[in-house]
Amino acid sequence: MDVETGWIASGIAAAVFLVAVASAVHALLQRRETGTVIAWVGLIFLLPLAGSILYWLLGVNRIRRRARALRDGHSPSPAPRPSLAVDPVLSARWQGLLGSGDTLSPFTLSAGNRVTPLFDGDEAYAAMLEAIDSAKQSIALATYIFDTDRVGRHFAERLHAAHERGVEVRVLIDGIGVRYSRRSMIAHLRRLGVRSAAFLPAHLPRSLAAFNLRNHRKLLIVDGASAFTGGMNIRQGHCRTDPGRHPIRDLHFQVDGPVADQLQRVFSEDWRFATSETLSGPAWVAPAGPEAGTILCRGLPDGPDEDFEVLQFTLLAALAEAREQVTVLTPYFLPEVGLLSALKTAALRGVRVDLLLPERSNLRLVDWASNPLHAELVERGCRIWLTPPPFNHGKLMLVDACWVLFGSANWDPRSLRLNFEFNLECYDADLGRDLSEWAADLRRASRLLTLPEIRQRPIPLRLRDGAARLLTPYL
Question: What's the CA gap between 371 and 357, in Å, rounded?
Answer without folding.
Answer: 11
